[in-house]
Design a protein that fits this description.
Blueprint lengths: L3 E5 L3 H14 L11 H9 L3 E7 L2 E11 L5 E9 L8 H15 L4 E6 L4 H10 L3 E6 L18 E7 L18 E4 L5 H7 L1 H20 L3 E6 L3 E5 L10
Parallel strand pairs: 4-5
Antiparallel strand pairs: 1-2, 2-3, 3-4, 5-7, 6-7, 8-10, 9-10
Helix pairs in contact: 5-6
Length: 245
C-alpha cells in the first residue's frame, strides 16, 4: 500500500485541492462551495490551520481550523474530511494527531471541535481513540445546513475538548460493564443510512437523544465513556471529599 503523507497546506493550488475534498464530502445541491478560495487563502495566510492527507500525490483528506478564544486561546478544528474510498485507513486519526502536534508546537493548551452525537464512528474515534472530553450539547448549533449530507436534519452537536500536553493523547478502552450510578444514551449503528432512507425516523431519534443529553447535563452528569452496545456512558463527577456532585 502506498504511504500516506500528512502535511500543512500553504499554496493556493493545495488549498483548492483541500476545498475540493470538503465539497465532495458535503456537496451543495445546485453547486457551491463550503468555503471560498479567497477566504481560505486569507485564513491560511494569517496562520490558521490547514492540512492535507495525500496518497501518491492525490489529496484524499483534509482538515481545517482556526484560533478560538472561548475559555482561552486554542485551536478550533472546524472541518475534517476523508474521501469515502479511503475511510478505512485511519487517515482521520492521523489528521487529528497532526493537529495535536501543530497545537503543541504553538503552545496551545487544547483543541475543540463539534461532532454529530448520532454518528457512532465519530463518537468512538473521539471518545475512545483520541480520549476527548465532552463539554456541551448544542441543539441545532449551525442552524439549517444546505449540503446534501445534512439537509432536512437538525444540526445538533456535541462539543469535544482535547487537552494538548507533551504526554500526548490518552486513549480509552470501550466499556462493557456499567456501574449502577451510570446512565447510558444509545445511538443507532448507522444514522447516515437511516437519514438517507427515512428522515422522519432520523428526526425522531435526534429529538430523543437531544432530550436525554440535555436532561443528563442539567442533572450534573458528564460523559465518561462509550460502549458499543449501550452508547454514551454518563456519570456524576465525584468531588474532592468523595461526594457525588
Amino acid at each position: 500500500m502506498s504511504a500516506i503523507e500528512i502535511r500543512n497546506l500553504t499554496s493556493l493550488a493545495d488549498q483548492l485541492r483541500a476545498i475540493d475534498v470538503f465539497d465532495q464530502t458535503w456537496p451543495i445541491a445546485g453547486g457551491g462551495t463550503e468555503i471560498t478560495p479567497n477566504f481560505m487563502q486569507a485564513l491560511v495566510h494569517n496562520q490558521c490551520y490547514l492540512s492535507g492527507a495525500l496518497i501518491d500525490g492525490k489529496m484524499v483528506g483534509a482538515a481545517f481550523g482556526f484560533l478560538g478564544m472561548e475559555s482561552g486561546f486554542h485551536l478550533h478544528s472546524h472541518m475534517a474530511a476523508v474521501l469515502p474510498e479511503h475511510r478505512d485507513l485511519n487517515i482521520g486519526t492521523r489528521l487529528k494527531l497532526h493537529q495535536y502536534q501543530w497545537a503543541l508546537e504553538k503552545s496551545l493548551p487544547f483543541i475543540t471541535w463539534t461532532f454529530d452525537p448520532l454518528v457512532k464512528r465519530n463518537a468512538k474515534l473521539n471518545l475512545l481513540k483520541l480520549g476527548v472530553e465532552i463539554t456541551e450539547y448544542f441543539p441545532d448549533f449551525y442552524g439549517e445546513m444546505i449540503d446534501s449530507h445534512n439537509a432536512g436534519d437538525r444540526s445538533d452537536r456535541l462539543m469535544a475538548k482535547w487537552n494538548v500536553t507533551a504526554a500526548g493523547p490518552q486513549s480509552k478502552e470501550a466499556r462493557a460493564a456499567l456501574s449502577t450510578d451510570e446512565l447510558t444514551i444509545h445511538i443507532p449503528e448507522d444514522i447516515v443510512e437511516i437519514r438517507q432512507s427515512d428522515i422522519e425516523k432520523n428526526l425522531e431519534i435526534r429529538m430523543d437523544v437531544r432530550g436525554k443529553f440535555l436532561k443528563a447535563f442539567a442533572d450534573g452528569f458528564e460523559v465518561v465513556g462509550f460502549s458499543d452496545e449501550a452508547g454514551y456512558i454518563l456519570k456524576k463527577p465525584i468531588s474532592d471529599n468523595g461526594v457525588t456532585r
